[in-house]
Design brief:
Number of strands: 12
Bound molecules: iron/sulfur cluster
Strand order of the largest sheet: 1-8-9-2
Radius of gyration: 19 Å
Helix content: 25-40%
Number of domains: 2
Number of helices: 10
Largest sheet: 4 strands, mixed
Length: 259
């Protein structure tokens, strides 16, 4: 989910969709383009995507990140992007693509779920950021010629995307904080940056860090919160977001505070 600046919104390609705008679309295996969209992608993975995929594949967060992602720190940025690593074949297909379609369909990433709609988060100078949406099927996608109509809400319902969309918004709000450099002299490869990446993307390692280090001696975390994050990856991910807000940006959180 891109952070969108109000000055740039008119330049974003695609048709902007407001809440009740309708668009035509249907994806079916009998369309000639079936599976063409699942190759050679810059497919951004967000923290909730990683949780769902690593659990689907029966991998630890470490194993998933090592085997399935490329972690890329772009020039001028202060936090890396996490991209799904395409297969090493002629067409650079998605590693989960099969002839029958997506092999991780119930846990496919937010971007795949919402496609051909692209989401962004519009940050104005004041107030909460506002989700914005653009209908942007590629030229080869025949689904846009079909007659079924959707709005943003009915499309999210059809694709079971509401939870994914809200988790991505949560992350995008945290990610936006990294517009400002929190690292100082230490730079983006220092210890605090590694810790922040772990808190956002590596829930299994972060859980061990919380419960097997002096973390709970340094931070006050209520017992009911401890119980939730011990067993629930999504709760732990949200706790990780709070950890980043508190420790890097000095923002308050109801989930933890320094003792
Ligand atoms: S290109 Fe469009 S219609 Fe074809 S398989 Fe992909 S999403 Fe479906
Ligand atoms: S995860 Fe599934 S839907 Fe997404 S690109 Fe891969 S095969 Fe296609």
């Amino acid at each position: 989910m891109k952070s969108v600046d109000p000055d740039d919104i008119e330049d974003i390609p695609g048709i902007r969709l407001k809440k009740n705008d309708a668009f035509c679309f249907e994806c079916r295996p009998d369309l000639a383009c079936f599976n063409l969209c699942c190759r050679n992608l810059n497919l951004f993975l967000y923290p909730y995507d990683v949780i769902r995929l690593k659990n689907n594949l029966g991998l630890s967060s470490d194993e998933f990140i090592d085997r399935h992602t490329d972690v890329v720190l772009r020039p001028g940025q202060h936090f890396p992007d996490v991209l799904l690593r395409m297969a090493d074949n002629d067409q650079a297909t998605c590693p989960y693509l099969t002839e029958q379609g997506c092999s991780v369909y119930p846990d496919r990433p937010d971007t795949c779920r919402t496609f051909p709609v692209e989401q962004g988060l519009l940050f104005k100078s004041q107030g909460k950021p506002e989700p914005v949406h653009f209908f942007r099927p590629p030229d080869f996608c025949l689904g846009k010629n079909e007659s079924r109509t959707f709005t943003l809400d009915t499309w999210a319902k059809d694709q079971d995307a509401a939870t994914y969309n809200s988790m991505t918004v949560l992350w995008s709000e945290v990610r936006h904080l990294f517009m400002n450099d929190p690292w100082g002299m230490e730079g983006p490869s220092g210890q605090r940056a590694k810790m922040a990446f772990m808190a956002a993307y590596n829930v299994d390692r972060f859980r061990s860090f919380i419960f097997e280090s002096s973390f709970l001696k340094r931070y006050k975390v209520k017992s009911d919160v401890q119980a939730r994050i011990r067993k629930n990856d999504t709760e732990l991910m949200k706790f990780g977001f709070a950890f980043i807000r508190v420790t890097l940006f000095g923002l308050p959180s109801s989930l933890l505070r320094l003792r």
